[in-house]
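Reopening this one. Same input as before:
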Amino acid sequence: MYCMHCGDSNDADAQFCYHCGKPLAVKQQTGQLDVKQGFVSPKNNSGQGKQAALPPQLYGWNWGAFFLPWIWGIGNNTLIAFLTWIPLVNFVMIFMLGAKGNEWAWQNKRWKSIEHFKKVQKLWAAWGFALFILGMLFLFIVIIAAIKTY
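Same output, byte for byte:
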């Protein structure tokens, strides 16, 4: 489905434009509430900076930001993640990114929907955890090799 305001492509079931946030289709009101459809989701305000309030269902820890801080920061337009390159600051920053990562990512990047946001952040978490495990395995092998040669 294409937005009649900006021309951007959107998912077929989207109600608001991913790019500009405007309604995709205007439905005529009949005066009756369609119980099957429920209510229309609020305007997607992601990517609008500090005034973009985090939806309640997105509160929580962000494992992708915790495990892959500066890489996650690039992918989510959260440049404060580069503070993890500073010694001693990095230890504090990974916990700040884990705690505030969802909020910062929602504010700094435009998302198609809450479901899209959750899906992408879940992928970041999976990749971060996998790379963490691989790093620990590599460290374990190096330590075992060092002990054997000593």
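So the earlier flakiness isn't reproducible anymore. For the record, Residues 1-43 form one domain.
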